[in-house]
Amino acid sequence: MLVKAELKEQILNLLQGHRGQQNAIKGMALAGLCGLRDDRTIRMTIEDLISDGFPIASSCSENIATGARMGYFLPITILEEYNYKHQLRSRAIGNFHRYKSFKIACERSHLQAEQVKML
To answer: Quick check: 24 pLDDT over 90?
Structure first.
């Protein structure tokens, strides 16, 4: 099993061959190349690498017309950087809206439970 620093280095080295979205590599493929059974550790390590200052992007969609692939990659254009930042921002906004809706649903649920107890 690789220690965290070695895994970070290995992922960075592997991603050198995956510059641009057209060369993206899926998390499971990275996991296999690193000797891991699943991509959870890859996801967490890439999150750490981004926090360490490495601009690693990912995409969850493919586009046959442009050759864009799903997976992790090092962005090589301003457009790839923009698209990934936009994707992250959209997810964050969606998560916030889901949080607000869930919070309201919980409050209503607790209120209804309290009203039932009063009967």
So the answer is: yes
In the 3-class helix/strand/coil scheme, how is 31-99 assigned residue by residue?
HHHCCCCCCHHHHHHHHHHHHCCCCCEEECCCECCCCECCEEEECCCHHHHHHHHHHHHHHHHHHHHHH
Closest CA to 59 of 34, 86, 97: 86
Q: What is the pLDDT of residue 109?
A: 84
Domain boundaries, the chain: 1-76, 77-119
Task: Give me the architecture of the 1-76 domain, per CATH.
Answer: Orthogonal Bundle (1.10)
In the chain, pLDDT over 70 holds for what percent of residues?
Answer: 86
pTM summary value: 0.80
Between CA 39 and CA 71 the distance in angstroms is: 11
